[in-house]
Design goal:
about 20% strand; binds iron/sulfur cluster; alpha/beta; Arc Repressor Mutant, subunit A; 14 helices; TIM Barrel
Amino acid sequence: MAGIYIHIPFCRQACHYCNFHFSTSLKNKEELVTALAQELTLRRVYLGEDIIETIYLGGGTPSLLDESEINVLMETIHKHYTVSAIAEVTLEANPDDLTIEKLKELKAGGINRLSIGIQSFDDKDLTWMNRSHNATQARSSIKEAKALGFDNLSIDLIFGCPTSTEQSWLNNLELVTQLDIPHISCYGLTIEEKTALAHQVKTQTGQLPNEESNAEQFAITMKELSKQGYEQYEISNYAKNKLYSNHNTNYWKQVPYLGIGPSAHSFDGQSRQWNQANNSRYIKDLAVGQPSSEKEILTSKDLYNEYVLTQLRTQWGCNVTDIIENHPDYAEHFAKEVQLQINKGMLQKIDTAITLTQEGKYLADQITSELFVT
Ligand code: SF4
């Protein structure tokens, strides 16, 4: 079992909070797609004979690809890899790209799951974020995707914007239920380095976020979505009817994956590898058949820390048996630190699973780091 991630490093405009790798100039798009296909071909042995269960086109904005570009990528994957007949094939899309014609092309091209970057259904928030779509486009993209049979549908939302209030955030969540969306990735606004938002915070200009409303809206999200029957299967991810993101769930379970494209990361169970985050250099290197990347062999300590980092955020938590069998050198440290957090009410033990309590979810990053081995 394995996954393929393809990074599409282009966006129409830069959202003020975003520090992903992308370019707002689309002039190299065609060459870049050729380079992605070339990398897929060159690295076909990376995952051995593993069957590809998930394919994820992320970015950036993969919905900027046209029909022929998506076909090139999908055909190259099918030519060089064994893909499960029931593989989950996700494409991240922005609402303003999702015309009816585009949705039909995506369906015909083998995309069976959409992750739509809605972020908010409120124009005030969208303007503050510098998104390229408006609230009307957000709603209609979801309705049209569903009408065309994209039942496996996810949207991204961001809480904690300075333009949002408790009521406007509740309105967002109400629309989620009204539109009957089966999967939601819901993130608190964070201030990332080298973004327009970081600059605003540094210079104290514009409307700035505050931590208190971030925590309040996180609490509202958990409460409201749980009332509506969503399972919080990971700290930022909620699903109905077990329509989890298989691709992301496999990341959290340390299933190997191949990352293609500028800035993409790969993991083979023992090492991590990451491509340079530079579109022009990536195209030039692939043109001569030499993808350039850096690699790190993971030590037993790294593997333990990664296990804790990814598992603790999920509803399945860290399993004591996994720790004893796969990370025996750190089992004693784990047991000691877990007990301290149980005593503080941040973690709980149910059979052999260690999971975050409701209170612990607010401090997930801090608790995880307490369990790390340094
Ligand atoms: S949030 Fe998405 S659309 Fe906005 S700049 Fe980042 S990658 Fe592009």
